[in-house]
Sequence to fold (361 residues):
Amino acid sequence: MGSLYKQPSSRIWWAKYYVNGRPVRESTGTPNEEEAKRFLRVREGQAAAGQPVLPRADRIRYDEAAADLRAHYQATGSRDVEEAEFRLAHLDRFFGGWRLVAIDQAAVRRYILRRQAAGAANGTINRELAVLIRMFRLAYEGGKLFRLPVIRKVKEAPPRQGFFEPAAFEAVRRELRPDLRVAVALAYALGWRTQSEVLPLALRQVDLQSGTIRLDPGQAKNEEGRLVYLPADLKALVAAQAAEVRALERKLGRIIPHLFPHLRGRHRGERIRDFRRAWQGACRRAKVGPRLRHDFRRTAVRNLVDSGVPERVAMEVTGHKTRSVFDRYHIVSPADLQEAARRLTGIVSGIPGGKRARGRR
Fold:
């Protein structure tokens, strides 16, 4: 049997009833006792008939669902919180204050048009819609939504084909300050993500004695840990960077856990979180045109495979979990095609009968 009660200093009646043996407490939204009793009878009837009982479903706002999603990411670590906040910021500005049940495909279409008008790429918009879909699913699982809306993503442009040839990479690298040269060298050689995997590295993740560097489980996008042995030249660069950090520790008189902290300026000792502006300036001075740091992943995949590293091992280094994604990053450049032509030189003339066939013509 259910019951009615009032919260202290409130005129509104609350109903307590049971669904599958579990107590549910819900505001009736009225100070009238008879109306509250009718509300309670309806809820008890729904529960007895096995019908869905969703307290406040029509009053749940986007903001509450977004707060639930943020708490979920914080508690489970299933997504990088900073990256999720970057996606949510755009959703918050558009859907803030909306009732969750009012966000349908038509509303999402308006959001897509707004983001496209602001210059956002379709791939970026789809990443944001993926967060929105996850928010809806979490609300549905939590009993705050009766059904999941249909949200269709937009068609994305073909995957980027960009990569760095050695000369272009060295030209840009020379234009960066020394600590950032080390960071991009790691990204270039290992294919690690600059923003989420290289810059957050801590000194404890580097073992110069064994020549290894590792990512902790959950730190990488695929949620798995990663251990890589550094080539000699890269190990020397990382050792020099670690020595700079130790020198800064002695100067400041405190421990600095980061491999890539600010070495000077008012943020000395704090972790470098981005160097987008410095990167763009370096590309401009090197006269290589606009380049994305994410191109390092494609470049590393190609370099590892072309160097004869087995593909399974290359996937372990770069952190690609599936073969399909790895293949998408294994870009073939014009230089690769020219090299293939060079290796094929003479193969036709070497076929038995090839010269005789030319002679008969």
